[in-house]
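User: Sequence recovery, please. Input:
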């Protein structure tokens, strides 16, 4: 990468890191992939198991509905488990887990395979068939991994709803996906308290129809309501002979759906991003192997929640496809003390830590001493995802956690991309705050309003110009919205919704969302969801939400509320509204600040001009106001 010519603040990888790296020469690999990207992906796909080989790597006959590995037959869960359970990896740890309360579990490939097959048979016995949707609403325990893989194994489509979401968010997702089975934990431990997941689910099920059975996983053991005929305990069914009968796997078409994952968009309800067995498998397998440089002896820790794409791709599928050991922790990073993470890295000898800037900033706040108490010499690589990482946090992570020997893989990607898109690899020189360049085989650009590429260091719209295997296939049930949202601004190119610039060395710097999506602590929330939660309160007539810079969370939500006639503004009402949003959407969506207003800035067509609110709050120029109504 022309190492001597780079400008700015550069961090070069050490000889040891390069010597170990799966990819030593990134430029060479990129050049090769550029000449023939289908060929590049085809080679990667050949490293995995297929019941029947594909006829075609990419079918682009119906753009933008791309298909990958058409004619190929596989099953991602088979590649995650059965393949390894038949080799020397049989007794290797697949999953290593620590509960917030200090409990510990370790599962080998053999045992995770066996338990998952039993779980799959339990689902079969409940009538779940290929193509059926199953909603999963659980805390971070090994059972969520089994639940996802069990669905994949029998060809059911999982839809995991993050355990931090609440009643209305869960209701909407159950209904939109038309799930017939819900898998839920009784509760989850978080910060020493219990999140009553089953209770929240019961309330959501009063609003949603369609669920025939609820499979309940015992974690916290508190008293819960079990509805006769509908609700069943997993551990009771797992003890029945039915759970043991067979280990058959559903042979899936490469393009058969694997999962739905809801994410926030610009307008309206969250949309279900659809991913498939074949392409997603090839994408997550390859990116994890190259970027986090997975080796046989590695213990990889992705500290995200399985309820987000990061967890899907890099706690569950990516690590298991690579036959690695995936570590999962149930609780909060600071429970009971701010050294919890460092303690676990030392205790289990973890080699790779992948987390979000918000978590890094949150832990940095407690000072270096908490980190320095622990031997973190097992760490070889670090990672970041979810939002731009500020250079200050980057440097702290690099120096204090990584002891200046662990390169930081700042990976830019989205729920829709399924896999890393802009990312370094260990052998690449780094610049704090930049994800470096697109992954081999992927072409990206930064365009102005008219579709012309911008000059170096100018800001513009980030787009993807080549299809990639783990790409979103559609928005479930809404093909039109898929085309409109991602492929209509610049025909033939995928619109990311982010703005970015590229420097003179070709390094990409992602700036942030340019639409009405707010990243709060790395979580993606739509202004529309927060606003509709506020408006669902009896006292509220209208509401607007915006994101404003926040030291730890990246962005914090500010909400402006017009009350209904007869409702009186008060501090108590503000608290009530915050609680209401927490109850409907989830604690992460609670506004930091609520302000009661008489009117909201709107365009003549009635759209709220959030940038005007934002500019006012920040004390900056609101820009062009010609469309403002008054
Ligand atoms: C949005 C996607 C896929 C991982 C979790 C987030 C922002 C993500 C980075 C990064 C700067 C980033 C973008 C993107 N984002 N990673 N390394 N640097 N921004 O997935 O919830 O679908 O959010 O997260 O704005 O569009 P998501």
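Assistant: Recovered sequence (630 residues):
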């Amino acid at each position: 990468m022309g190492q001597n010519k780079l400008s700015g603040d550069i961090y070069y990888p050490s000889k040891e890191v390069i010597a170990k790296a799966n990819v030593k020469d990134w430029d060479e690999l990129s050049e090769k992939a550029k000449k023939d990207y289908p060929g590049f992906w085809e080679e990667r796909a050949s490293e995995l198991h297929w019941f029947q080989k594909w006829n075609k790597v990419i079918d682009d006959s119906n753009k933008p509905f791309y298909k990958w590995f058409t004619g190929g037959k596989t099953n991602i869960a088979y590649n995650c488990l059965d393949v390894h359970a038949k080799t020397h990896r049989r007794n290797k740890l697949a999953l290593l887990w620590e509960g917030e309360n200090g409990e510990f579990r370790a599962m080998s490939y053999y045992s995770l395979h066996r338990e998952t097959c039993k779980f799959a048979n339990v689902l079969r016995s409940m009538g779940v068939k290929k193509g059926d949707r199953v909603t999963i609403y659980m805390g971070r325990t090994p059972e969520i991994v089994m639940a996802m893989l069990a669905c994949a194994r029998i060809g059911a489509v999982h839809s995991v709803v993050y355990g931090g979401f609440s009643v209305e968010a869960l209701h909407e997702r159950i209904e939109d996906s038309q799930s017939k089975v819900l898998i839920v934990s009784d509760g989850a431990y978080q910060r020493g308290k219990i999140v009553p997941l089953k209770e929240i689910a019961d309330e959501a099920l009063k609003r949603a129809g369609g669920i025939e059975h609820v499979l309940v996983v015992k974690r916290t053991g508190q008293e819960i309501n079990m509805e006769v005929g509908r609700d069943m305990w997993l551990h009771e069914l797992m003890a029945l002979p039915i759970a043991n009968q067979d280990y058959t796997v559903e042979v899936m078409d490469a393009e058969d759906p694997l999962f739905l994952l809801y994410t926030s968009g610009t307008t309206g309800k969250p949309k279900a991003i659809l991913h498939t067995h074949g392409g997603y498998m090839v994408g997550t397998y390859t990116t994890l192997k190259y970027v986090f440089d997975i080796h046989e002896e590695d213990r990889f820790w992705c500290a995200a929640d399985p309820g987000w794409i990061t967890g899907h791709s890099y706690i569950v599928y990516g690590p298991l496809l690579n036959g690695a050991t995936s570590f999962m922790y149930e609780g909060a990073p600071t429970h009971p003390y701010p050294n919890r993470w460092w303690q676990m890295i030392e205790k289990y000898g973890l080699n790779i830590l992948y987390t979000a800037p918000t978590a890094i900033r949150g832990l940095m706040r407690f000072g270096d001493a908490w980190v320095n108490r622990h031997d973190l010499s097992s760490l070889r690589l670090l990672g970041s995802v979810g939002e731009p990482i500020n250079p200050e946090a980057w440097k702290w992570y690099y120096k204090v956690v990584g002891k200046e020997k662990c390169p930081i893989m700042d990976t830019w990607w989205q729920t829709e991309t399924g896999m890393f898109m802009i990312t370094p690899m260990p052998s690449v020189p780094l610049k704090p705050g930049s994800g470096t360049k697109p992954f081999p085989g992927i072409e990206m650009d930064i365009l102005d309003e008219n579709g012309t590429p911008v000059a170096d260091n100018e800001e513009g719209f980030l787009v993807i110009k080549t299809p990639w295997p783990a790409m979103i296939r559609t928005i479930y049930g809404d093909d039109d919205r898929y085309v409109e949202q991602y492929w209509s601004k610049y025909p033939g190119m995928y619109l990311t919704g982010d703005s970015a610039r590229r420097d003179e060395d070709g390094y990409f710097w992602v700036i942030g969302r340019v639409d009405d999506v707010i990243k709060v602590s790395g979580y993606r929330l739509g202004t529309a969801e927060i606003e509709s939660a506020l408006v669902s309160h009896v006292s509220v007539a209208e509401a607007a939400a915006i994101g404003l810079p926040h030291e730890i969370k990246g962005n914090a939500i500010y909400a402006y509320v017009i009350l209904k006639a007869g409702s009186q503004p008060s501090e108590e009402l503000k608290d009530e509204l915050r609680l209401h949003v927490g109850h409907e959407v989830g604690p992460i969506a609670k506004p930091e600040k609520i302000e009661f207003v008489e009117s909201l800035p709107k365009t003549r067509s009635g759209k709220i001009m959030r940038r005007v609110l934002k500019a006012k709050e920040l004390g900056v120029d609101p820009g062009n106001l010609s469309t403002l109504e008054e």
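The chain is about 30% helix and 20% strand.
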